[in-house]
Structures are given as C-alpha cells and as structure tokens.
Amino acid sequence: MNRMQTTKSSEIFDRALQVMPGGNTRHTIFFPPYPPYAIKAKGCSVQDVDGVEYIDFVNNYSSLIHGHNHPRIIEAVKRQLDCLTAVALPTEAEVNLAELLCDRVPGIAQIRFCNSGTEAVMFAIKAARAVTGRSKIVKVEGCFHGSYDPGEVSLAASPDDWGDYDHPRSVALNQGTPQQVLNDVVIIPFNDCETAEKLIRQHAADLSAVVIDPIPSRMNFVHAQEKYLQMLRDVTHELDILLIFDEVFSFRLGKGGVQDNTGIIPDLTTLGKIIGGGFPVGAFGGSKEVMKVFDGQHRFPNVFHGGTLSGNPISMVAGAAAISIMTDAEYLRLNALGDYARLALENALEATGTKGQVYGQGSLVGLRFSDARAENYREFIGDGSDIKLMQCLHQDLLSDGILCVPSGLFTLSTAMSETEIDVLTAAVKKSLSKTREQSTA
User: Fold this and answer.
1) What are the distances in angstroms from CA 142 to CA 134, 138, 189, 355, 357?
2) Are residues 263 and 292 in the same domain?
3) Staple 220 to which of 1, 14, 366, 413, CB 3.0 to 4.6 Å?
4) How far apart are CA 95 and CA 111, in angstroms?
C-alpha cells in the first residue's frame, strides 16, 4: 500500500490508536502499517477515504455474497427502515427468513436467530449438552468457530504445545482461559478418519457433540473429505453424540450448504454471514426433536435464548432478499467463477515458477506458497509456507487496487465476472515476477 496515497487513512488510524487498543475493533481487519479506511462501496468495488478504489476479494470475510449495495437488498432494507428497526415483539420478517432457510437446508426443520456465527455455535453446543446430558465436545484442530472459549481451543496450537498427533492437547487461544474449558474439549485431526474416530470412541461417554467446519478458513479453505464427514456422521449416530456442522462459511457453496451437496445431514447446523445480506446475523437449527430444548411456550425452556437484537428485522429482510437471489443457476455461475479463479491462480504460479498450492471450493479460494499440499492443520503448519512472499503479494495487490485477506484468501461475489479474476491474476503474476527478478538480481 502506498502510504503517500492514503494520508487520510493514516490520520484516522492515528486517532484510532488513542481510543481503541491496537487501533481497531476487529483483529481480522488489521494489517501493518495500517489498513485503508473505507467510505463507500458498490458491487465488487470499495473506495477508501483517500479516493482509492479496490476490487473487493474479501467481501467482509464472505458475508457479502452479492458484493456491496445490491439494489434488491437495499430496497428491502429501505422499506423496513420506514416501518421499524428494532422492537421487543416478533415480526413476520423473521418467520419469512426462517421458512426460507428451513426449506433449503436438509438438516434444519426449526431454526432460531442470533447476531453472529459465534453465538450460533455457542447455542448449538448448549443445545447438544441439554439433549445429551453430557458436557464435553469434540472439535477439529485448527478450526475457527467464533470467539467463544470452547470453539477457540486449539485454533492456533503450535509444535511447542500441541502434543502427540494421536492424542492432541487442548490448547488455549487466549490468556486466562479456564482449565475446565480445555478439559471439556477433545481435539481431533482434520481429514484423518482412523485417528479421529479412535479419539471420539475413547471419549464417547462424556461427549455431547462433534463440531466440524467443512471448509476451514484458517487452513486456507482446505476442505473436508467426504469420507471424513461420513465417518463423523456414522460414529456420532452410533454413539448418540450430536453432529454439528458449522456452515457459517460453507453455506455459500450451495443452495443447502455442504450437507445438501454431500447428503450427509448433521443434527445441528450453524449459519451466519450470507444469511444477513450484509447485516449482523447468526442462526442455529436442527430437527424438531433437538430444537425443542428451546421451546418455552408452556414451561421454562431447557436452554434459554434471548438477545436484544436477535431476529432484528433489518437483518431478516436483508437476509431474505440475499438468499432469494441465490437461485440454482446463480450458484452454478458463482461456483464456476471460483473454478475459473483457482485455475487462473494455478496458471499464475506455473507461469512465474512459484511453488504454491491453490485450495478451496465454490466461491472460496485459498492461495499458499508451499511445495507441499496440506490436508490437516499440522501439515498446514509444517508445509514450509513462504510467509514473507505472501506479505509482499498482499502489499502489491493493495497497491494495484485489490483487497484480499493477508493470509491469501479470496472470496468471490455475484457482482464479479471473469474480468475481475483476470485483473487479479495479472496482478498476482506481476507481483510474483517482480519478486523472482529481485531474488535473482
């Protein structure tokens, strides 16, 4: 990023440092020396306060499946703004979105709304504990499930603390995490059916749920093998453990998410991001038998669920508009664009003689500069990735007017076409060629 082009962003960041620790309120949007500050956006384009325009391949970490300010979403929100923005009463808007999602997602017969994917996972785990009467959960090493203590365990474990591969340690992400939280989380490796099943069976008597993200963002969208998901479904069903699919990211891969694509149906599903049309949202759902723990119609519920802005009508109408636009044909088009992007990036690596791997499915694309192809977190950590090269690429792309996640994630939107992919590919080739020339000079 050219600091001479972003003087206003620099000034705002200096102000932010005085009132926010680290100058930000989301760690995931900071990168040095400071990020550009956005002021407006439309389609796949974002403009910062200095007037610099960028093609947006972040799309607010995939929540903006239609890019920015889609006219149908904006119109729905404007109509709702004229009625009410928040109220301590139910609205038909939440029923409309609930009907839409229950119709699309095979594993959801009933659903409840909250305000983030973090909350959705939290309530899904609470439901599993209430149904089974057990407290422990299983999660996959290296998977992100929001800012909730159990979901953060072993998100960023290192060779210094992660323990043996066959018996991974539960490692805290944050200082001060209670030991009991760690004791209640069993860690399994990703995409290793034999080891994962062995660990689940070993702890079965204490387990309420297995939580799995089918396409983990923290592993650059290395996707779960179908045989691995099927093993989880089979063993949890046999042992009366609930299976939770965290489809906050993966729901954008198809009309009913990964479970619809594979036919592997979980007991509980968590949603977020695209189902809010760009507004804060989360949701969790499952069968009527499981979801009845939240039923407080005739007695106090087994699991209480409130939330001042849960089911907020603005998010509900925006989400309904966003999901309705995603027809079968639109999913096919967007996923084909993802295939085009992955192939284009692979060609860029080959053309520049750069060692690298391209990951992802559908409209989610991950790039990593490594000679080895990882299938799980430990392979991912030990693949010898060239982090410095990724940092250089990120800065070069910013200078060329392209936003991406600094770790090499690219999220597509329906506002994009092959034209934007071609621009991205040309910029990647330019950056990698420059780096190669500098290293051989």
Assistant:
1) 24, 12, 9, 23, 18
2) yes
3) 366
4) 10
Helices and strands of the chain, counted as H and E runs: 16, 14
Give the model confidence (pLDDT) of 153-210 as tens digits.
999 999 999 999 999 999 999 999 999 999 999 999 999 999 999 999 999 999 999 9
* First-to-last C-alpha distance (Å) of the chain: 24
Given pLDDT bands bounded at 50, 70 and 90, which one contains residue 436? confident
Structural domain harbouring 8: 3-65+328-440
Residue type, 89: L
Q: Which two tokens stand for residue 71?
A: 């006219």
286 lies in the same domain as 163: yes
Q: Which of 338, 384, 331 lies closest to 359 in space, CA to CA? A: 338
Residue 410, both tokens: 């690219």
CA distance linking residue 306 with residue 20, whole number of Å = 29
Using pLDDT thresholds of 50, 70 and 90, give the confidence band for residue 441: low
Is residue 4's pLDDT more than 70? no
Distance CA 222, CA 377 (A): 9
Q: Are residues 312 and 334 in the same domain?
A: no
State whether 178 and 57 are in the same domain: no
Q: Are residues 364 and 416 in the same domain?
A: yes
Can you say how many angstroms the Cα of residue 424 is from the centroid of all Cα atoms in its chain? Answer: 22
- The residue assigned the tokens 């709702």 is 80
- Condensed to tens digits (0 to 9), the pLDDT of residues 64-83 reads 999 999 999 999 999 999 99
Is the four-CA dihedral 109, 113, 116, 121 of positive or negative sign? negative
The pLDDT tens digits for 244-286 are 999 999 999 999 999 999 999 999 999 999 999 999 999 999 9
- Cis peptide before 406, with omega less than 30 degrees from 0? no
Tell me the one-letter amino acid at 311.
G
Angstrom distances, CA of residue 169 to CA of 105, 186, 216, 243: 34, 8, 20, 21
Q: Are 22 and 12 in contact (CB under 8 A)?
A: no
Distance CA 100, CA 75 (A): 19
Structure-token pair, residue 165: 């591969």
Q: Which of 223, 254, 412, 413 is nearest to 331 (CA)?
A: 254
